[in-house]
Write a structure and sequence with these properties.
heterodimer; A: 274 residues; Rossmann fold; 2 domains; 7-stranded mixed sheet; 3-stranded antiparallel sheet; 42% helix; 19% strand; B: 190 residues; alpha/beta; 7-stranded parallel sheet; two-stranded antiparallel ribbon; binds S-adenosylmethionine; CheR_N (chain A); Bact_Chemotaxis_MeTrfase (chain A); CheR_C (chain A); Chemotaxis protein methyltransferase CheR (chain A)
Amino acid sequence: MRYKDTSDLEISLLLEAIFRKYGYDFREYSQAHIRRRIMNRMAVSGFEDVSQMQSKVLNDETFASELLQDLSITVTEMFRDPIFYKSLRENVIPILKTYPFIKIWHAGCATGEEAYSMAILLQEEGLYDRTTIYATDFNQMALNRAKDGIFSNKMIKEYTSNYQMAGGKESFSSYYTSNYDNVIMNQSLKKNIVWANHNLVTDSVFAEVNLILCRNVLIYFDKNLQNKVQTLFYNSLINGGVLCLGSKESLRFSDLYEQYSELDTKQRIFKKKY
Amino acid sequence: MQYEAIVIGVSSGGMNVLKIISSSLPLHFNIPIIIVQHLSAHSDSHWIKLLNEKSHLNVTEADEKEKIKKGNIYIAPPNYHLLIEKDKTFSLTIDERVNFARPSIDVLFESAAEAYTNKLIGIVLTGSNSDGSKGIKRIKDCGGLVIIQDPETAESEYMPKSAIATIVPDYILPLEDIIELLIQLDQQER
Ligand SMILES: C[S@@+](CC[C@H](N)C(=O)[O-])C[C@H]1O[C@@H](n2cnc3c(N)ncnc32)[C@H](O)[C@@H]1O
């Protein structure tokens, strides 16, 4: 065999070091994913082996934060999975309409596209003024970009088509102003969004909310960690509150499955039982 | 030699080829098969149902955390990378595209090579880009068996050619012979 595989032990020692020194806990993430990202970083930065990289991580905070960026995948879109947003409009908005005040938590919001999509939807449904959106992530750099609400206009064509497929009622271009290669999201969308740093693995219940969206975050966690985070969500939802997962994520293996009813099985929308 | 899994990478021209493979393998074919076919991000899973109806084996979309079992042909869902964990379960990610593709063949192959080492068969079929070449090298370097579709017989020769330029495969064969070989290898297992 010519390929010398990095041992699991080396990788778990590196993750242990990151946790002990910086408090970021990747020890229960998908191993194949973590391995791929670490091996890529090793190749890009030209390290011979993981232990070389480990001493760099421990002694160089700039490098450590680069590695953190490697391990936090902020790939996202506006109105990603348009059919999901359509289902939100049809199945979840009517529930939200019954509350005088609405709190929504986007866990793992990355650079904010999902939260802006939600703000647009709520505005169109006449609910935004009584809503607070908590958008959280453990990646501060991503959060800073989310706060700015400035996105590359290269993506706008796709987002516009997503928005229309999602049942958008206006012209998508009315939600931003163009500025050279970028678009700037309207101030009126930002006003009720609270951006906050929160780590799903190490931080506790964030707020009591009516709706949680955590999409394409749990796929990166192993089963055990998924279960822990599901408990966190369960404890953060009011009775009758709604939980939305990514289109390939499921509650089926979770210990809490019985505590929810399914509002839309295909779009992974669940309602916490009373 | 005991093979525990087969990974297949295929791109343009893939629909036909996958139809032939899934309908030709016999009922008791044991080694699980895991496939990345390049598709558009929004495509649905209807075609998997069609493949399943015509196959003796169970053709299904690979699910997050699912345990890999014999008698199945797993297909990567559109718009996600498919990875194999060392405990022989699937992980999905939405990391950046690799070789302009998500799912990427390289991503599947590299993780499969690390999970199955020399108990893996890697196959590159028709396609018009170079995804899979890095991954097939990893499979070879980990001691796995490497089969490439004879470019002359492939609908798109680019992908098999690119793989052949990267490594010396164990076999370069037309599709029918690949299927024949797989059936033989599967029978030797027992
Ligand atoms: C792939 S993005 C998903 C973005 C968005 N929800 C979507 O579906 O388009 C995953 C996000 O989860 C965040 N994340 C990963 N682990 C986390 C943790 N332990 N706590 C909070 N956020 C985390 C990453 O920083 C990243 O921004």
